[in-house]
Amino acid sequence: MIVDCHAHLVPPELLAAIRKDAARFPNVRQIEEAGSLALAFSGGKPTRPVSKPLSDIPARLAWLTKNGIDKQVVGGWVDMFGYELAGAEGEAWARLTNDCLLAAAKAEPHFVPLATVPLGDGARAGAVLKDAIEAGFAGAMIGTLPRGVGSTLDAADLDPFWAAADETGALVHIHPSFDAGDKRVNDFGLANGLGRITDAVIAVARLISAGHVAKYKNAKFFAPMGAAALPFVLGRLKRNAAITPGVGDPVAALASIYTDTILHDARVLKFVVEMMGTERLMMGSDMPFPIGDLEPMKIVAEAGLSPAQIASINGGLAQKLFKIS
Q1: How many folded domains does the chain comprise?
Q2: Is the pTM of this model over 0.90?
Q3: Domain range for residue 30?
Q4: Bridge partners of 308?
């Protein structure tokens, strides 16, 4: 079985439910733009409009067939996670998203969903995650910025979420956010080319340094894009841990982190394999975004790996990790 471990989906049913149930979410402003929906949470800046490829299921299925992919692990769209929504409204928003993702996966067996959680509230996020795992999700996709620019995933009040991930053995996909606040990447397309990497590597390095990867060892930490440059900076992080009291061990942490192949260069993938092995590596596309890999099995084929390694990367590991029958 061939499995794409990293993609995004906004089910059409979710967009319909958002429009229909607007009264349930008084702090979500809906902005219709040329037939597309953008959102503004709690008076904040509007999101980008939901692009057609995020919701175009027939086109997605055609792409999967063209690439010989049997299953695709789909999280939501980070822009729509709504972490700005407080309390019960934020929880209801996450649960609505999860209901629609689960329904989409039941209607179309090619999809394997990852839950959304209201990460602005650690206790509510933990409760939603537990319910999602019980409902059949294998884990959750979370953004790097639970409370906007400058916020961190290792904040103490998020401990109930990490404890729930540990208790349930959930996979937690730590996905970069659209705008991490570094204006230097706003030109030349560098938000995609580099900004997603720097955002993710800082978020995950903090979790490692704060001891979360060691403490919540039953949770499965997933850092996308070849572990978001962690293999490249491992020596520096190791040296930093040696000279900084109380910092978690980055070498041990990297040995337990899962990642994907979205690197666009077989030479880089070979380096990641040299640093991490293939036991926690899975093929991914980041569909439907342009910075993703439109031929995700090609880089695996070009990396000089054994047939057994290729089989594991292209689906064997994902079948086990995401509980795909």
Answers
A1: 1
A2: yes
A3: 3-321
A4: none
Half-sphere exposure of 301 (CA within 13 A, CB side): 4
The answer to whether the beta carbons of residues 165 and 216 sit under 8 Å apart is yes
Structure tokens at 42: 């709690």
C-alpha span between 321 and 114 (Å, rounded): 12
Q: Which contacts qualify for 41-46: CB closer than 8 Å, 24 or more apart?
A: 41/82, 41/83, 41/84, 41/85, 42/84, 42/85, 42/86, 44/84, 44/148
Q: Provide the CATH number for the domain around residue 120.
A: 3.20.20.140
Which residue has tokens 């063209």? 66
* Three-state secondary structure readout of the chain: CCEEEEEECCCHHHHHHHHHCHHHCCCEEEEEECCEEEEEECCCCCCCCCCHHHHCHHHHHHHHHHHCCCEEEEECCHHHCCCCCCHHHHHHHHHHHHHHHHHHHHHCCCEEECECCCCCCHHHHHHHHHHHHHHCCCEEEEECCECECCCCCCCHHHHHHHHHHHHHCCEEEEECCCCCCCHHHCCCCHHHHHHHHHHHHHHHHHHHHCCHHHHCCCCEEECHHHHHCHHHHHHHHHHHHHHCCCCCCHHHHHCCCEEECCCCCHHHHHHHHHHHCCCCEECCCCECCCCCCCCHHHHHHCCCCCHHHHHHHHHHHHHHHCCCC
Which mean pLDDT values do the consecutive 10-residue runs of the chain (325 residues) have?
Answer: 98 97 97 92 96 98 98 98 98 98 97 98 98 98 97 98 98 96 96 96 98 98 98 98 97 98 98 98 98 98 98 98 94
Q: What single letter denotes the amino acid at residue 97?
A: T
